[in-house]
Write a structure and sequence with these properties.
Layout (H helix, E strand, L loop, with lengths): L2 H14 L1 H20 L7 H10 L9 H4 L7 H8 L1 H10 L6 H8 L20 H16 L13 H8 L6 H8 L6 H4 L2 H20 L5 H22 L6
Length: 243
């Protein structure tokens, strides 16, 4: 899909909710990082980027009062929330240039490896890019401030991912992501390990800045912000801070 159309929908997301817009950028950043770790930056990354940026487009049909509620949703509100992947795919299907895989990414981003997601798709039946997006979406939900939960510190993330491998997430993707040497709890617990982690995160920001895509500046800015306030706060005190 052309960038002009993607940008139009991104504006809709930003106008509906600043938090939803920030989440969309965070997920795109993480999804590309996973693709990079898998050696996929020469194939399919552009549709993954678009799908990640627009995966929650359907939430623009849901009131911000529901999206930001700190307490439990009512049964009716929960049913409405579960419709947002289909609503987003329907909105994008009106674009003649929208690739079928892009529509799948938006539709399937709440599926699970074990088939217990919104629509019952499971395991290898899910496109690889959708499995990457599912993991990136959950990673951002785990590690950023939400009205209903505090962010987890990054040093706890690998273990949480392993707990959900084979049920919520593709176990091979979890292995690739959680076994990165610089992300291990024992490494992050030391000043030398935190320095290495920061250097790798800065290198990723530089990689994004070199990326030949109109969204690159957005994502590089997101990564720089993660370095300045988000991830660093999680590593310092395990509490995080509201963006």
């Amino acid at each position: 899909m052309e960038w002009q159309a993607t940008y139009h929908y991104l504006k809709l997301i930003r106008e509906h909710s600043a938090d939803l817009f920030r989440h969309s950028l965070n997920v795109a950043n993480l999804a590309l990082r996973l693709a990079f770790e898998l050696g996929m930056m020469d194939q399919g990354w552009e549709v993954l980027l678009t799908g990640a940026l627009l995966h929650d487009l359907g939430k623009t049909k849901i009131s911000t009062a529901v999206l930001t509620r700190p307490g439990p949703l009512s049964p009716a509100e929960w049913q409405q929330m579960k419709k947002h992947p289909a609503w987003g795919a329907e909105m994008l299907a009106k674009e003649k240039a929208a690739e079928p895989l892009l529509l799948d990414l938006v539709l399937l981003h709440h599926e699970r490896w074990d088939g217990q997601g919104y629509y019952g798709r499971r395991g290898p039946d899910l496109p690889l890019l959708a499995r990457i997006l599912i993991l990136a979406d959950a990673l951002d939900a785990m590690t950023t401030y939400r009205p209903y939960q505090r962010p987890r510190p990054w040093e706890r993330v690998p273990e949480e991912l392993k707990t959900c491998a084979g049920s919520q997430f593709d176990p091979e993707l979890v292995r690739v992501f959680s076994e990165r040497p610089s992300w291990q709890p024992q490494v992050l617990a030391s000043p030398t390990g935190r320095k290495r982690f920061r250097e790798e995160e800065e290198a990723w920001a530089e990689c994004l800045e070199r990326l030949a895509h109109p969204a690159a500046a957005y994502l590089a800015a997101v990564q720089r912000r993660r370095l300045e306030v988000g991830t660093r706060a999680f590593l310092r005190d395990g509490k995080g801070e509201k963006p």
